Predict the structure.
Amino acid sequence: MINCPGDCENRFAMDINFRILILVLLLSPFSVINAQIDYISAGYQVDDLASFRVTFTAYYHEYGGAPVEFAMDDTLRYRFEWNFGDGNTGNWPVMLHTYPATGVYNVTLTVTDRDDPLREFNSGVLPVNIEETFEVPNVFTPDGDGINDNFIVRSDGVTPLTITIFDRAGNIVYKHTSPVISWDGRNPSGIRVSPGVYYYVITSSVDSYNKTGFVHVFYNR
C-alpha cells in the first residue's frame, strides 16, 4: 500500500487546477494580431463639436486587404508611435489629440514589432487640415428623441466661451463658460424650458467668437 503525505490531496488538486488553467489559456482567443501584416495606414476624424480636436486611428492590412483597426491589446505585440506634426506624440492605436491652432499638420505613424524590432511599418505622411469653426444654431428640439436635442455651439474647442441665454422676460435660463458649449434646454432648476424664442449672448477673448442672436425651442418636431 502506498503511503501518501498529509498534503498529498492538496498537491493533487493544485496540479489539476494548474493543468486546467494551462488548457484554458491555450484554447482562449487572443485579440493580439497573429496574422501577417502587409502594411499599415492611419485615418482621422475631426470632432463634431471642436474643430481643433481630432481622433486618429491606426489600421493594418493583410496582403493588400481592407483596413482593419488595431485593438488596444495589440500594444502587447506592437509599439505605436504617432507624430502629430505639432511637436506632440502618442503611443496608442487610437489617439485623441487637440491642436493649438489652424493649419495643415503632417501626421505620421510608425508601428514596430516588439518581438522583431527590424519589422517596422510606416504609414507615410497624412496631411490634416485644421480649420477654425464657429456655428451657432437658431433652432433645437430638446424633447429627448435623440435628434437635435442639444443647443450646440461648434467652435475650435480650445477658446473659452461664455454664453448667457435669456427668456422673453429677461430671465437667465442658462449660463456657462467652457471651450465647448452644449445646452440641453433645461433651466438652473433642471426643468425644461417652455417652447418659444430665446436670446443668447456669446462672449470670448476672440472677436470672431462674440455673437448675439435668437434660438427657437420646439418640442415634438
Observations:
- Confidence is low (pLDDT under 50) at residues 1-14, 16-31.
- DSSP finds one helix and 16 strands in the chain.
